[in-house]
Design goal:
Blueprint: H1 23-27, H2 67-98, H3 101-126, H4 131-155, H5 160-188, H6 194-223, H7 225-244, H8 262-273, H9 276-292, H10 298-303, H11 311-331, H12 342-361, H13 366-393, H14 397-429, H15 431-452, H16 455-458
Helix pairs in contact: 2-3, 2-5, 2-6, 2-7, 3-5, 3-8, 3-14, 4-5, 4-7, 5-14, 6-7, 6-11, 6-13, 8-14, 9-12, 9-13, 9-14, 9-15, 11-13, 12-13, 12-15, 14-15
């Protein structure tokens, strides 16, 4: 539904455990708030006096004062809602054709492999070419795919094979797009605004996951299934225009002739292995999602544990609770987005996620369970904000695309692995035991990693 570079070995220098130096700041001169050509990070002091009272809790919107970031963020709003229309339409059409949920699941897997392959390759490409150009190409490709989705639905092909091919192509374009989009943020805002920029973007994406399906459900009886694809395609035209208005974002530094092959992808993994804070940021998300994402058990819990509340209502509340909590966390991100100890924020948020999931697994009341899931959503938002900020600030610009490619794979793959793990554990141990046990494992494993490897604890900006 969801979703490049140097042929030499990774640079030996990297961020010191206590302090990271971002690539653009190290290799590019200060520039104006919206650079016209190089896309270098603006470096002038940008923080206003610290807000007081209730205002300090409100979302930090400083990045929106920068026209280039504002355009990228605006395009994200359109994409977040429009992509969910297609995300609802594809499984609905497949189910209408086959009457089988198994085919719906198969289609999801058909999109996963292209996403993984092209996200890794797309990260290498994003480090080797102008990221604005790559965004233009990939957003145009996604828009054309949406038009083809509309054409097959309007023509009444009723072909699952065509749908799965189009889905695979769309996910390939998304895999190429996501690393370039995320890596570009560090070129559009200064380092101290990275958490705020990530909070703005993550809040929009979570809001889209709530509003998009609701809008799709309301529109299908009115305009029909085919038109959802067309609306998404038209919305993507706005995204392409917003990206066109961005400044050029070519590779920084002396290395301008870069490749984007297997060796460069491998170099990215070596770079992660050689920088403990980056490795821990990925492991933190894997621990939280694989061990503690219980969505595969929501249907069983709604049908058994929370059946007295109404199975349909319970299921809807369970699926909506985490995104709602994440949006709430984003809207109240003013305080934590200004935190300096990014490593501790990641550790603390993953631990809170684990505790909240454990509480959810032990809850007999639907409303208490939803409250725990909402807390987990807030924790997930905090984790996303600071893991994203670490990946952008602790990696040099020539590696940021590949870091974001791996990040895209982890974010897409972790919950799917969790579905398999929790589905199996829930069948053998019972859903509540599987959920609570997974939450406890998150807490134990995260604290053990933090104790064993101090790099994340020490990391601050």
């Amino acid at each position: 539904m969801d979703p490049s570079e140097n042929s030499t070995e990774p640079r030996a220098e990297g961020p010191a455990p206590e302090r990271a130096v971002s690539g653009p700041a190290a290799s590019a001169p200060p520039g104006p708030p919206e650079p016209a050509v190089t896309g270098a990070v603006p470096t002038e002091p940008s923080a206003p006096p610290r807000p007081r009272g209730l205002r300090r809790w409100a979302m930090d919107t400083r990045p929106l004062r920068r026209p280039a970031y504002r355009r990228l963020w605006t395009s994200t709003i359109v994409t977040a809602v429009g992509s969910q229309l297609t995300a609802v339409a594809v499984p609905k059409q497949i189910y209408d054709i086959t009457g089988s949920s198994a085919w719906v699941g198969a289609a999801s897997l058909a999109g996963l492999l292209p996403l993984i392959v092209f996200a890794l390759w797309g990260g290498a490409i994003a480090d080797a070419m102008d990221r604005r150009t790559l965004l233009l190409i990939t957003n145009t490709g996604i828009a054309v795919t949406s038009v083809l989705f509309w054409a097959q639905a309007a023509a009444g092909l009723d072909s699952v094979a065509v749908l799965m091919i189009l889905l695979a192509v769309q996910q390939a374009f998304w895999g190429l797009n996501a690393p370039a989009r995320s890596a570009s943020i560090a070129r559009l805002v200064p380092e101290d605004e990275l958490p705020a920029a990530n909070a703005l973007g993550s809040t929009v994406m979570q809001t889209g996951q709530i509003a998009g399906p609701l809008l799709a459900g309301a529109l299908i009886p009115v305009v029909g299934l085919a038109e959802l694809y067309l609306i998404d395609a038209l919305a993507l035209c706005v995204t392409v225009w917003a990206v066109y208005r961005l400044p050029a974002l070519p590779p920084l530094g002396a290395a301008v002739a870069r490749r984007a092959g297997i060796r460069e992808i491998v170099d990215g993994f070596r770079y992660i292995a050689g920088h403990a804070v980056l490795l821990l940021s990925f492991l933190a998300d894997i621990v939280a999602m694989v061990l503690g994402m219980p969505r595969a058990l929501f249907p069983q819990l709604a049908a058994e544990t929370y059946a007295p509340y109404g199975e349909g209502i319970a299921l809807g509340m369970l699926f909506a609770a985490i995104p709602i909590g994440a949006v709430l966390g984003g809207l109240l991100s003013g305080t934590f987005s200004r935190a300096r100890r990014h490593g501790w924020m990641v550790i603390g948020s993953v631990v809170v996620w684990g505790v909240a999931i454990t509480g959810f697994g032990l809850s007999d009341s639907l409303w208490i369970a939803v409250a725990f899931l909402a807390v987990a959503g807030v924790a997930d938002m905090v984790s996303m904000v600071f893991r994203g900020a670490i990946l952008l600030s602790a990696a040099t610009d020539e590696m940021r695309g590949r870091m974001q490619g791996v990040f895209t794979v982890v974010v897409a793959g972790g919950p799917r692995l969790a579905d398999v793990l929790h589905g199996t554990a829930g069948s053998s141990l019972g859903p509540r035991t599987a959920v609570a046990g997974g939450g406890l494992l998150v807490v134990v494993v995260m604290l053990a990693l933090a104790a064993a490897i101090p790099a994340l604890r020490r990391y601050r900006v």
